[in-house]
Structures are given as structure tokens and as C-alpha cells.
Specification:
With 389 residues, this protein is of the alpha/beta class. The chain has helices at 14-24, 32-45, 56-67, 83-90, 136-145, 200-207, 213-217, 237-247, 250-273, 300-312, 341-349, 361-380, and strands at residues 50-53, 74-78, 95-99, 121-127, 149-153, 161-162, 165-166, 173-177, 190-194, 286-287, 294-296, 350-352.
Length: 389
Amino acid sequence: MIIPFNDPQPIGKENDYILMATNSGKLSGDGPFTERCKLFIENNFNANHALLTTSCTHALEMAVLLLDIRPGDEIIVPSYTFTSTVNAFILQGGIPIFVDIRKDTLNIDESKIEEKVTSRTKAIFVMHYAGVACEMDRIIEIAHRNNLYVVEDAAQALTAKYKDQYLGTIGDLGTYSFHETKNYFCGEGGALVINNEKFIKRAEIIREKGTNRTSFLKKEVDKYSWVDIGSSYLLSEILAAFLYGQLEMWKEINKNRKRIFEIYYNGLEHLQRRKMLRLPTIPKNCTPNYHMFYIIFNTEVERNQIMTYLRQHGITAVTHYTPLHLSQMGQRWSADTEQLLITKQTSNTLLRLPMYYSLSASQQEYIIQVICNIANVFTTNSTLAGRIL
């Protein structure tokens, strides 16, 4: 049995919509399917104003331009995140101030944010890991008290909630990813959600290469011209058509991913009770979208041994982020004096299991059995057993 880490396949009307788009004569951005996706996000997830982009990376870069990040401005950010979260503001001369993560959710530790605030701090960038919310009430409170902006990197978190609010709609700005590894995808794509209304007009200009073309299309001006900085951030209509087919199925996708998550959890929970590994934690005030299922082992050696064993049995399980503050680029701004111990430990010991819509119950049973088999071998050798995570 060969089980990939991800297997992105259409599950609804994606191909029909692509054909409709190709036959429409409108293939560039901001066509009918782009509008459908925009309205779907706004109407179903209470987003104030959504704009489709070519990627979540570009949505983050737009957010930085809207915040007017300048050289020397400091941005508080978790080290345990993808490079796009930080590259977005480094491109404008911003300086990352790295913060450790919580042991339970693997999100930025809100208790460590305020001590990092200085007179140069401009914003807090949070990332909702695995579609589980950061502690947003505390983060927003800190931001308001210090006159800071909050940007939510919700690349993994569309449809997930913090209390009664959808992730990406709580901070000043939010970003989503529709990369093929996400719950809802179109190969490459993203969206910027603008919750602070003062940014809406300029966001439309930046997204349209610095022109007021959107105002022209709305018949607010007689012609459009270059009025600000910007770039080409519009998603193609073909990709928007595929994405709309995915968004229409979001409830079914969530239901299926929850089933997959629960099968993994129930099948491996006995190993957690035996202190052999640790499973994901979901706080009571969070409604996840079940973006991923990961296991955290006691040591890097154990994680690597099990990853190799799984691959030998046809199962592609993978690690995740290398801490940004330890990377070649990150060390330009971080001497690692504070260690960020949870970030380092998590990176060394976390393993992600296959997680996608078409993953079958029989495939999961096989994955769970393989993990249990090697865990039992390690127990005999006293490698995994008895260690408190």
C-alpha cells in the first residue's frame, strides 16, 4: 500500500466550472468566479471585505504594504511558522522579533508578546497553526494597549473559529491560502481579508498594480490611472473557478476531515496515555477545521526512526517548520539568546501524518497499525516508554 502525504483531487463541480470559465472568454482575474468566491467568503465566514490573490504569500505582502511597514519597524511574530509570514515584512525592511510558541496549541505564546514590545514595534503577526486559533482576545488586548496592528496568517485556518469568530476576521487584516496542501485549494491561490475598513480602498489599488481600476469598473471614475504602489495580485479566473467548486463543498470537506482526525486520535490515544507520544490539543474556545494531524514524540531520534519506518511501509509522513530564528536568514536578526525552547523541541519531534479528503478508513487503519507496531518494538527496547512529554 502506497499512501502519499497529500492527494489533491476535485470533489465537486470544479471541472465543470473550469469549462464554464474557459468558455466565457474571461480568463484573467476579477471575472465572475472571482466575484463568486469573494462573496462566498464574505457571506459564509463573516469577512468584512475579501480580495482573492495569487497566493497567501502575496496576501501577506499586500498586508505589509497597507500597514506601511518601513525599514526598522519591528514586527512580533512566532518563529514556528512558514517563511512567507516573515518575508512579507522583511521585503520592506521590517525586523522580525521572534516569540516562542505554546506547548499545547503550538501557536504564538500570548504571555510572551508584551515583553517584546518597544517604541519601534508596528504590528503583531500571528499564525493559527493546524487551523487551531491563537488566544486572540489577549492578543487584541495587547495590540490595542500598545497601538499595534494585528495580522492573522490564517493560511491553514479558513472555516476555523475562535469563540464565535472565524479566523482571519479578527485582526486588522487576515490572509488565507488555497495552496494544494490546504483544506480548500486551487493549486496556488490566496485571499486577503480586510477587517479594518480604512484599508479597503488602498487594498483594491495595490492589488490592481497601483491603479484605481477597481473604482473605474465600479464607475466611480471616468478612467483609471497609476495612483499608488502595487503589483499584479489577481488570481486567474480558471483557478477561481476551481476554487469555487471547493468552497461550495466546505461543509462536506470539514465533516470528512473531522472524521479522519478522530480516527487518528482514537487509534493512537492509547500511546499518548502510555506517555509514548503526544497528540494535538484543541482548547474549548476553538473550533478547528482539522487542517492536519500531527504526532509529537519525546526525542528527534524517535521521530526520525518512526518517519523512516513509515516510509519503508509506503506511508509518507513529514516533518514541519525549521524554526525561523535558527535558519540562515533568521540568524541575521536573532542570536538565539532566549533559545525559544518549545519552538526548537517541537520542530525536532513533530511528525505530520497523511491528511486529505480521499484518505480512506482502511488506509488510516493501516497507518495506525504500522505506528503501533513500531511503538511496541520501541517499548520492548525501552526507547519510547515511560517518558513524560
